[in-house]
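Researcher: Let's try something more involved. This one mixes different molecule types, so please make sure each is placed in the same coordinate frame as the others.
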Amino acid sequence: MARLAPENVTLAREIIDRYPRPKSALIPLCHLAQEQDGHLTDDAMAHIAELVGVTPAEVLGTASFYEMFKMEPVGRYMVNICTNIACQLLGGEELLEHAEHKLGIKPGQTTPDGLFTIEDAECIAACTEAPCLQVNYRYFHRITHDEFDALVDELAAGGRDDIPDHGTLARVRQHIPPERKAGSVVPEDRAVPVWIAAAATEEADA
Amino acid sequence: MPEPEAPPADGVAVEINGREVIARKGELLIDAAERAGTYIPRFCYHERMRPVGMCRMCLVEVDTGRGPALQPSCMIECTPGMKVDTESEATKKAQDGVLEFLLINHPLDCPVCDKGGECPLQDQTMAYGPGESRFLEEKRHKEKPIPISDLVLLDRERCILCDRCTRFAKEVAGDPLIHFIHRGNNTEVNTFPDEPFASYFSGNTVQICPVGALTASTYRFKARPWDLETTESTCTQCSVGCRISIDSSRDEVQRFAGVDVDPVNWGWLCDKGRFSNGAVTSPDRLGEPLVRQGDALVPTRWADALERAASALRAATPQSIGVIGGARLTNEDAYAWAKLAKGVLGTDNVDAQLGDGLPAQAVLGLPRATIDQVCTPGGTVLYLGPDPKEELPVLFLRLRHAVVEDRATLVEVSPRSSGLSSLAAASLQPRPGEVGELVRALVANADSDKDVAGIAAADVNAARALIARSSGPLSVVLGRPSVAESADAVLDAAGAVVAARPDARFLPALRRSNVLGALDMGLAPGLLPGRVALDDGRDWFAGQWPTVPAGAGLDTEGILSAAADGRIDVLVLLGADPLADFPDHDLAERGLAGARTVIALDTLLNASSRKADIVLAAAGFAEKAGTTTNLEGRVSTLSQRVTPPGTARPDWMLAAELAARLGADLGFGDAGEVLAEIGRLAPSHLGVDLATVAAAADGLLLPLGTEPAPTGSGDAEHEGAEADAAAVRSDAADDTEAAQAEEAAATEAEGDATADDAEADPAVPATEPAPAAPALVSFAAGVPSPVPALDAYAFRLVATRKLYDQGTLVQASGHLAGLAPGTTARIHPSDADRLGVAAGDRVVVRSPRTSLTLPVHPDAGVPRGAVALVLNQAEVRVADLVDADASVTELRIETAS
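Model: All components are placed in one shared frame. Result:
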């Protein structure tokens, strides 16, 4: 559990290559590290700092701004239950309370078997489907207490194909081989686009 | 400093509180208002950093034609016709609101806070705040102070998130090791876990923190601001000469802080300078003279110590007296000792440098650049010195700013990568000893067709092109990048630049505090005070001094060799520690053992003065007034803030007392009189006295007339105009080939003018017609000593320094003592592979002298065929390896069994 594994370093270098400046790859690489370990480890952040040429403090500063990057270990399934206004009106808070009883933990905690973490989420933009929740950021709509229990049991029994482990953003990975790359240009080095140059000439002529 | 000045031609007229103010083009409103006398409160804005508009304290009502609206004055530039009201109801309400908001979570622990009494938050709350808070809830609580480095503590509850420290770390120091962590209400400044804010400049964040969130571990709970007495002085930890303030309480130095002077340090200090106050107050300070009794040094009376010293000197012939050191001294001390050694004792065996500098004639003879000239926007800097981050830290900050913000082009030539390498447009690491050849190729008119000094022709030509195509001025920072190669190589390089680019100016990167002042005062073989050669100045000084040495004497290496051969009867150490600092430790040891009598003047006992026969306790920094000269040749004041320990005295006074015992009167009764004599006699310092130095807020650049500097005496307006004209002349001359001729003419004219001054000076007997002042020394390129060819198994030594080492002052400074990093043998990774060693393996490094066993560390910043070691660190004494006679130090590496 630590620095990026060799195959992820290869991937990281490919990601860095997509940007004019290595630093721009910082957040994608944080996702990569979180996918590897389930959360962002200190070693991974230090490794990312080396790869993109910043200090570890800058990686931590950037990553800790975003709540979806977890600095501490979380469960294999991160359950975000919305209690914002629309969900609240339709039983979101009761759903959260039910979840606390079912899993025996409070929001922010992880079950002792390391499977579930629950969080009290702000609006997750599915108000028409309230009450809603996410498991590893995959949506479940208009969920009843029974449906919640069934979902938890199913995940505990071996998981569901449509929900990867915490940290995985998508199973389909973008892969741009070097020969298909559009080429990245540092903004300062970018030539003025033709249409701007043309407009400037027209203006000058007028 | 804001001075009344004529409105600039391209100024911008704005209206501030009903008054018309002419702002400079592009000037921020907050600056323009302050210049016009209207202070706008602020926390995040700092005039030496880019504005961020974080704290909102500087909100003022601005009307640019669309009606008044609140805008942060640190983020908007003045535009014509802008109407500003800093006292309106809306502004007042905004200030109330911002302060009430900032104080929601700020603890009211001012009575126990170090900042209390000098706190911008406290002061501005009093001046602009609402007086009471509507916030009744519990404040935020966090663990009280957490150390973010060995020297700086962070109290996160007090932080108002102004971004000053984090901006400083990133923008100014280039060490972004602290950062905002988390978000919103949970935001805090912190480091990465287990990676402390180990920046050489961390102390600046304490100084610029507008609250008590960052405090210095050296000063915590030591004093209250209202108990402090403050004097402005000049830091003497290195030769950059940063202006500082000395704060004392109960006659004890409590802390140093940076003072903003535009030509030098911009308010910044390095941690070594800032936290060296421990060396002043160290319990080990010498308070009385010591004399040797068998193996021990025992305290004695001054009369006894001085008499012993005088009788030793009386018995010795001039050729058998050597004087080493002087960089610790003030200019006045240095002059007094030059007068005693050269003018009374008649010896020229005097050297302020310890074999790790450059020949004095070269340093004083090369056309000198100021830091501002080196850092000219768009200029080109050829850096041929030691790592400035380690040896001249604030010069590093200035160079960094020039490269990062002002588009200066930096070409670094150094035997191993340094703190500058990542900033340099080209960073070349030639093989030790071959720098001259490389620099000749860099300033040549045509591309090189072969590799030079181990560097590929393409890289050499790329760097050559950078220098050749630059339109700005060319400056050379010249020092000894590695003391394991002889100074000849560097002089050869300087000679190559002078020959190819007569317009280039040089900044000497000699690190010891007042070494340039000591050289100016003649503490070098073959020189007399005022940057004149012994033979040129003989007639000038003959009438004023009892005697003048018959011929050029020995430098430090020569003195130590002579002492080792038993030819030195009295060796005087002026605050010098050759056993620690001379690059050839074996020679230093033999020299010290061979000298019949060793007299040391020092503030603390060091390795060398422990072996002395007589130790005279000297007053140190903050304990005596005087002047010091930085690497630009800028003379600035040193102030006395506290009394010296015991009966320690200034070094000039010891020189005068010794002279008196030798039957000579040096002719001065206080430091001011010494300076007056310097201003009367030293040709480069003509016209300088206490009043002129004190009047020059930014220090005095010598010789007078090389920069606009009011001279204080005579018709100030007329002289100012003259100085301006001289500055314009030298500016105009900078870029042209004719520079030298013009400047020579200027110097001549100046010589005439100063001679006239001397005639008018009542101190010079009017009966004698004053002779023309002798010409100042000029640079003559030396002949480099040949470097032996490198065989396939040999390595060459690169010996550099770190900011923190086993030096006496660092070790006496308490908090700094533990920061010396030690050394490993750093070699290029391919060499490591060739030898079959990995990081941490112990290897034997063998020179013709001796061998050392230490861990190896592969480092791509070291060229192939070189071993980089750090001088003066614990356990490993690198100076044991070096032979001062050799042009380079050849080494072999074996794996330790």
